Each structure stands twice: as structure tokens, then as C-alpha cells.
């Protein structure tokens, strides 16, 4: 293999596939990035066996030549070193030449690196995906879906299935759900399944995979193709294939957790409420598990408070725009509430309580697509 | 005490004194910030007993009123909580009222905090400074002096005196020196001692103190007053007093370490050289202690190289602008060289060698005020 490639293109590509490379892998070949050049493109691959990313750099794009190919071929290069080197090379191009026993020379300006490469034949094959369930979704929209759900996955391995986001597709509606059993995030979205009427359930994508995916896909309205199989999901964007394994097991039925009625309903300004909770939690962090108290106090106001015997106490008053139903005193984890509120893009939120000991719902006003459910804490 | 104060002013002041507050102190009162209000200002104090910072907020400045005083007084507030709270308060002012047993109420907008304060009488007094050695220096200039020396102090406590920067004042020239015994940084600067002819030596300021000082003083040409006593140094800037204890012991005589002649002299572009070393060190980090090889190779070039048997090798060629004297091969720690080069503001640097096993000198061209000395490593 011998090519000359535009450095910016290479850096971008390497950065993308590095998202899948883990420094903690025990499989030596997976500490590398696989690079393959044929007559029309360079393909970079990174994998930690849970996530695999394939990134294409076309020889030419919009009449700009990215790669000059002298000899096609393939090699696996040490990922961490290679990615650091390319970011620091002095010129705007680099010549890459694979020699005997995969020893690879990188030449750029007055700089010459020689890296011990590995045999690309030893690199594992990417999952073979049969395209049985395919649908499309706008990239920026899907990034939002990830942002609004993935924070709620469990970080504990006691119930591994809860470390993922569950996807269900039914009647053209995609429902994404995450829960760590203390709170739950749900986002629904209409998707384009083409002429087919596809549906599936219990497709559980590891939270980590979605976080990495979110860093790679553009903030653009360009479509993301999603291919679901029994044990893998593949996201296809321009020049990128992102594979993730799915989690084994049955995701719990969460539909019954979400209350359908309410006894107290409050509408308040998202930002004011978020900031009040944020301040109240300042004194609740230590020894109090970040729990704050919330109470309706009449006069179109709610009070958020916290008391730490060694430090002091805090009272926050927030004006409400609407309040209906019973008086209420309830306690909850401030972090859960803040994370829930941060998923809301609306100026106002609606909070629906069904009593001090029952889970309550936070939703944007005038939008049923996002539901954030939080379990209260017993203190009052 | 009861006052209403502009929040931005308070946040800035608290941020400054927080630089002296340590979360690891065992003295409970020092986990607090002392706040004192008299008829003309609020004074904030923070200290970890090595560093003490006193910050003044005037009642009025440039016809703008910062503080409205209802009742003078004093209190010590829990530093970490107080600093986090003020940064998040909703209004642009806060009312601070000290009640019984130093319980302090902070009111801002719809937010009300009540913090358990401590008795200010228990707060240690600041060092009493007799102004025997006083001189002045431009703030931005002194920040540069710190930047160009403090990085070279020792981080090991085996010789505590080397964890500080030594200051010597003689004939109106201030010499600042730092060394960890592998490299040495020296910066000289002319200072204004007024009409007096003051001189001192062996004034060793802890590196940590200078790093914190550097964060506080403005990047302006405003003068910094420096007061030196036998065991304390005091830096006075506008509205700020910064005290640091000095290190006990005798700083080693470093003047004989700096070679006065040279056998090989090379002038090269600072940035090109820095980047070449940076790249060469990429393969030198693990198992090789970051050591790179440097050699004159004729043709107005030098070569920087490194070889890591498991990863690969790198050769960097750098054009030199001047080269005089003997051919040379030498090895050194890339980190030391990079840190030395980063202190140089000149486009070109001069490197003076006196043989492969002798310390060598890096200087800006046409400026004798900065000297960076590096000990080579035996490998060739």
C-alpha cells in the first residue's frame, strides 16, 4: 500500500473510528486501526468488539482530490500512537507506505515515522448484517432522542439490561425508554419505514454505544439509516457505518409505570425551576443523597428547600403559571429532576403528581413526545 | 452585620480568596472565608496558613456603588458552600445578614440561604509584615517571570528547598531561579527599588504560591509591590494582599552550574524545533522516560529521533539558521526541552552545548535575561 492523503481528512476519519477503540482491550489486534485502500477510497475501522466503526474517505469528493493512490493495500496500525501522530504532523498531506512485515512509513514535511503494523487478515470481520428491519430518521433528531433518554440508563451492572436504551417500533412510532429503576425517560418519535410496515420491540442498545454514536453523527438534518437485527444494530450515515451489539435479555415492561391520571398538576418556567433546584441541591449533596423537598405553598408558588444540619438551610420560591388539584409535599433527588428538566426544550414544563409516595411525571407543555418519570424519596 | 452587595463584585472577590483555601486543611476555621465590613469596604480573607489572601471590595468605585451598608460586622462562612452559592444566586445583588450565633442569611431574588457561620475572632491573624525590603515590578512582567521559572521547581519533597523559586536582588537586578536538579530556569529583570538601595538573597517562594499568585494578578502593566521579610513575602496589587510563607533552608548556589563557554552553538526556529521535539517524543514516552536523541547531521540540519522497539521509530529534521563549532550527538528529556522552549517569546533560540555529557543552555536570541539549562541523559 502506498498513498498520499490530505491530513485533515485523515485526522477526521481517525478521530471517528477512535471512538470505538478501547485502551483496555485484551485482544491485541483491536488496539489498532485497520486501514484499507482500494481504487476509490480509504476505509478506516476501529472496534472494541461491542462497538465497531467503519469510516470511508473517498478518493475524490466535490471535485476535490483527498487521496492519491500509488498502490492499494491494507494494514493495521497502533491506534493510540497513529492518532496522536497524525494530529501533529507538520504538512497538510502525509504519505503512507506499507513495507515488509507491515512496517509502515509516514512521511510529512521533514518528519518521518516508521510504525510496526499488524497483519490486516487478523483483524476481526465486521458483523454481517442482514437488512431485515430498516428505517430512517433525521440525524439531528436522533441525537436529540439520545440526549433525552440515555442519561437515565443504569450505571450499575446488577441488572445489565437497564444499562441500555430500549427501542420499540410500532405503527411508525419509535419509542425509546431508559430507566435505572429510580427514574425513567421516554421519548417517542415518528419514523419513516418506507413502504414496508416494520415493527419490533425489545431492542436494547448499550448506553455507551449511543453516547459514542451521538459524538459522531452530524448536527444536520441528513438521514440516518438504522438497521436492526436480532443481536446487532447498524447506524448508517454518510461515509460512516456504526455497529453496536444489542443487550441480551428482556427489557421490563415500563408502560404500566407511567401514571395516566394526576392529583396535582403544576406548570412552571423550566429555567427558573431548574435553577432553583440547582441552588437547593447545593446544601443537599453531602449526607443527604441530594434529596430536596418540594411543596405547594399557595399564592401561586412552590417552595424547594433543603436542610443540612452542619451547613445551613435553603428555601427557594418559584412562581407557578398554573396549579390544579391537591396541596402537596414531596421529596426527590435533585440530580434526577435537573437531568429531566435539561431534556426539555420548552420554556415551560408540566409536572403531574399522584401523591407524595407515587412516581411523578415531568413533560414539556404542549408536547406528549417526552416523558420523564421520577420516583420520590420518603422524607416528609 | 447587614449589607447589600453587587453579586459580580462578590463573586470576583470570593474567587480570588478561594485560591488560598484548601479543602484538605485540618484547621476547621480555615475551611471558611472571613468577611469583614466597615464603613468603607468589605474585606474577604482566605488562608491555608502557607498562603493567605486578603481581598478588598470598596463600597464605591468610579462613582459606582458596590455595597450598601446597614450594619458593620464580621463573620466566617463555609468557603466551598459560600463560593458555590454566590455563583448561582438569581439576582444581581445579594443581601447578607449575620444573626445570632453567626447564623448568616443570604437573600437574592426568591432565594434564601441560611449558613452556619463561625466566630471571626477565632480566625488567625494575617502575618505582621514590617516593610523592610520593598520593591515594585509591573504585574504582567512578573507573571512572565513566574511562567518562565516556576515550571522547573522540583515536585519531590526529598529536597524541600527545591520546590520553591529562589529570588535574589542585587544592584537593582532581580534574579529568579528554579531547579529540580535535572534542569534549571533563570530569569533576570530590572526592578524599581525607589531611592533605597535594597538587596537580598535566598528568598525562596514555594512554587505553589507563585502559581496561585499568577492566577490572581491582572495581565496589566499596573505595578505589583513586593515586600520581603525573613519568613514571609507579601505581594500588594490593587485591592489585593497576597501573603506567602518562605521556604526554610539555603538555596544551592547555582551560578557555577551555568556554563560560560560552548563547543557547539546552534540557532534554530523556536516553533519548528518545539514541534519536532513534540512529535519525536510521541514514541519516547513509554519505557524510554521521554528521552530523544539530537544530532548535528551537516547540511545545515539537525536530527531529532527516537526509537521504541515495540512501536516504531521517528526521525525529525530541523533546518538550522546558524551552526558553529563541533559536531554533536546528545540525548535529553523531551519534556524538559519543550517546557524550556515554551518560555521563549523569540522567533529563534540559541542552544549552546559544551559536549555530550555536559549541561547545555537554551536562550532566546538577542536576550540574555532568560536562561534554560538542561542536563543531558547518557544514551549515545
TrEMBL record, chains A, B:
<keyword id="KW-0238">DNA-binding</keyword>
<dbReference type="InterPro" id="IPR022634">
    <property type="entry name" value="DNA_polIII_beta_N"/>
</dbReference>
<dbReference type="Pfam" id="PF02767">
    <property type="entry name" value="DNA_pol3_beta_2"/>
</dbReference>
<dbReference type="InterPro" id="IPR022637">
    <property type="entry name" value="DNA_polIII_beta_cen"/>
</dbReference>
<keyword id="KW-0808">Transferase</keyword>
<feature type="domain" description="DNA polymerase III beta sliding clamp central">
    <location>
        <begin position="137"/>
        <end position="253"/>
    </location>
</feature>
<comment type="similarity">
    <text>Belongs to the beta sliding clamp family.</text>
</comment>
<dbReference type="InterPro" id="IPR022635">
    <property type="entry name" value="DNA_polIII_beta_C"/>
</dbReference>
<keyword id="KW-0963">Cytoplasm</keyword>
<protein>
    <recommendedName>
        <fullName>Beta sliding clamp</fullName>
    </recommendedName>
</protein>
<keyword id="KW-0239">DNA-directed DNA polymerase</keyword>
<feature type="domain" description="DNA polymerase III beta sliding clamp N-terminal">
    <location>
        <begin position="1"/>
        <end position="127"/>
    </location>
</feature>
<dbReference type="Pfam" id="PF02768">
    <property type="entry name" value="DNA_pol3_beta_3"/>
</dbReference>
<feature type="domain" description="DNA polymerase III beta sliding clamp C-terminal">
    <location>
        <begin position="256"/>
        <end position="378"/>
    </location>
</feature>
<keyword id="KW-0235">DNA replication</keyword>
<comment type="subunit">
    <text>Forms a ring-shaped head-to-tail homodimer around DNA.</text>
</comment>
<dbReference type="InterPro" id="IPR001001">
    <property type="entry name" value="DNA_polIII_beta"/>
</dbReference>
<dbReference type="Pfam" id="PF00712">
    <property type="entry name" value="DNA_pol3_beta"/>
</dbReference>
<dbReference type="InterPro" id="IPR046938">
    <property type="entry name" value="DNA_clamp_sf"/>
</dbReference>
<comment type="function">
    <text>Confers DNA tethering and processivity to DNA polymerases and other proteins. Acts as a clamp, forming a ring around DNA (a reaction catalyzed by the clamp-loading complex) which diffuses in an ATP-independent manner freely and bidirectionally along dsDNA. Initially characterized for its ability to contact the catalytic subunit of DNA polymerase III (Pol III), a complex, multichain enzyme responsible for most of the replicative synthesis in bacteria; Pol III exhibits 3'-5' exonuclease proofreading activity.</text>
</comment>
<dbReference type="GO" id="GO:0003887">
    <property type="term" value="F:DNA-directed DNA polymerase activity"/>
</dbReference>
<keyword id="KW-0548">Nucleotidyltransferase</keyword>
